Amino acid sequence: RESITSRRQRTFAMIKPDAVGQLGEILDVIEGREFEITQMKMVRLTQSQAAAFYREHEGRKFFEALLEYMTSGPVVAMELTGQDAVSRWRATLGPTDSSVARTDTPNSIRALFGTDKQANAAHGSDSELSATREIEFFFPSSKVVDELLPQTTAIL
Ligand code: RTP
Ligand code: MG
Asked: Taking Cα atoms as reference points, which of 16, 11, 13 lies closest to residue 117?
């Protein structure tokens, strides 16, 4: 059991389209670093879903290319839970640019499975607040209530 001083935390991770073919190897890294996969699904994002997910980058010169990339194939969305999950998962990813990652952090996911500064294999939330928003984006908690509504209506 966790002690009251530990920081068990959730983060949002996503395997991007360029790395979905290496999903098994990436899951091995995730489990080897003691993250618990507490939710997971494979989905194909629409342009507007990708734009909403990455809305903080709207207006940047790489934004259109980012949407093309993120909608080029399925992604695997995950909620990871563990000690200091937000910062530990960012560290496990390595720097944004996979070629920088190969020099600086050769065992990181972006070094091992990514290509360049765009096709970089995986995403990780940059803060606890982002993690909450991104988990809700892919795994909306209201869905449980929505599924219960028809039954409630039927009883009434
Ligand atoms: P992420 O949000 O995907 O975890 O990546 P990050 O925090 O390391 O990097 P961020 O600045 O948030 O950028 C989001 C994603 O946009 C693509 N990108 N392309 N061509 C470029 O200059 C460029 N810069 C960023 C990457 O896929 C990056 O992960
Ligand atoms: Mg980011």
From this structure: 16
pTM of the model: 0.90
Q: Is 17 in the pocket of ligand 1 (CB under 6 A)?
A: no
Say which CATH number the domain at 85 has: 3.30.70.141
Indicate left, alpha or beta for 84 from its phi (over 0: left) and psi (-120 to 50: alpha).
Answer: left
Report ipTM (2 d.p.): 0.97
Count of CB atoms situated within 10 Å of the CB of 93? 23
Q: Which atom of ligand 1 is nearest to the CA of 123?
A: 4
Cα–Cα distance between 13 and 135 in angstroms, integer? Answer: 9
Q: Which range marks the domain in which residue 37 is found?
A: 8-155
**Active site members:** 123
- The annotation status of 110 as a binding-site residue, yes or no, is yes
Given a contact cutoff of 8 angstroms between Cβ atoms, the answer to whether 120 and 26 are in contact is no
